Amino acid sequence: MLARATLRAAGAAKTGVTGLAKRNASTSSSSEAAAAWKNNALLASSTAFAIGSVAWYYYQFGRQPYAMTPQEEGLHATRYPWEHEKLYKTFDHAALRRGFQVYREVCSSCHSLSRIPYRSLVGTMMTVNEAKTLAEENEYDTEPNDEGEIEKRPGKLSDYIPSPYKNDEAARAANNGALPPDLSLMVKARHGGCNYIFSLLTGYPEEPPAGAVVQSGLNFNPYFPGTGIAMARVLYDGLVEYEDGTTATTSQMAKDVVEFLNWSAEPEMDQRKRMGWKVMAIGGVLFALSVWVKRHRWANIKSRRMLYQDPSIGSTPAAKQPGSTFRR
Amino acid sequence: MGGLAALFRRNAVFLGVIFTGAFATELAFETTANSIWDQINRGRQWKDIKHRYMESEDE
Predict the structure, then answer these.
(1) In CATH, what number is assigned to the domain containing residue A83?
(2) What is the annotated localization of this protein (chain B) (predicted)?
């Protein structure tokens, strides 16, 4: 609709221009030809000026300022063809289950996942009983009892996954002063999302390249901004044993844990995509309908033609009244 | 013509047709849309893989 309207507008503009040119040609007056040339020159030069000033403004103020050195920026993460990022694909829930296993067995000793309750695992990657068993492995504080004492109770499905450290200071103290960030929203929190975390986890070289300066206590990773990261390489081939028989290579584990972290950052993704398609389907039908109704309503107006008979010429028997309408 | 006129004659009939029509359309649309979605994502969703983990639970 919009496209067609635009086309029509462009067409109208064109006919206007040619009409003008024709009129000029028919009068064949040299002074009018000169005026037309002046008009065109004015139009062309003001257009050029407008384009030029926009370009100059963009050159001055529009570009991204890169104040950091490439080393400080970090290497751009490779773009991987993630299946679950396609608009019509859900998470691979078997991969989520494997990724959660990797999180539990590897990352959870340093990183918290504080926004994920056990109940959210049920029906996405675990059965109720599995999740309950897992929750009961941890102890949580009770509400104060009659004497105001806080006791311990086993975890329930409504509890959140416990953090490895009591607080951020304890986490820093245990990690050379570097805080292992919470991973719940990590995929949303970093440029490059899945690609970045995957590249980070698999991007540790055997040893830093010649000439690279690595502070003591840090590890070289080209993808980490600044290249010195406090987290050492954590994933090695065969580190975990998958229950579904998948071979636990470094990249397999990284891929699974990244997909899991993507789920923890947007657990609504499957639902959101499915709902999105439904909205597009219904919205498409409604849009087509509205286009049809519009055309239906406008059909009379668009096909109407006005006739005007000059009274001074004298009326012929077939003459119509001024303003009468005809259908084409 | 006759059928359509009968529809509009009584407001209760008209309203009833609209309500049941909306209900049926909704049901049909949801069912088809969901089955297409499940078809595209076969093997990826929890309901496709949970049987692996449900059985071991019974023992």
Answers:
(1) 1.10.760.10
(2) Mitochondrion inner membrane
ipTM for the predicted complex comes to 0.84
Size of interface A-B (CB pairs under 8 A): 42
Measure the CA–CA gap between B40 and B34, rounded to whole angstroms.
Answer: 10
Predicted TM-score (pTM) of the model is 0.80
Tell whether A93 and A82 lie within a shared domain. Answer: yes
How many structural domains is chain A composed of?
2
User: Cβ-count burial of A255 within 10 angstroms (0-12 exposed, 13-18 middle, 19+ buried)?
Assistant: buried
Is B56 a member of any domain? yes
pLDDT tens by residue, A253-272: 999 999 999 999 999 999 99
The answer to whether residue B12 sits within a structural domain is no
Q: Are residues A94 and A232 in the same domain?
A: yes
Encode pLDDT of A137-194 as tens digits: 999 999 999 999 999 999 999 999 999 999 999 999 999 999 999 999 999 999 999 9
- Nearby residues of A114 by Cβ (< 8 Å), 6 or more positions away: A160, A161, A163, A182, A184
- Chain A residue nearest residue B29, CA to CA: A278
Which of B29, B45, B54 minimises the CB distance to A90? B45
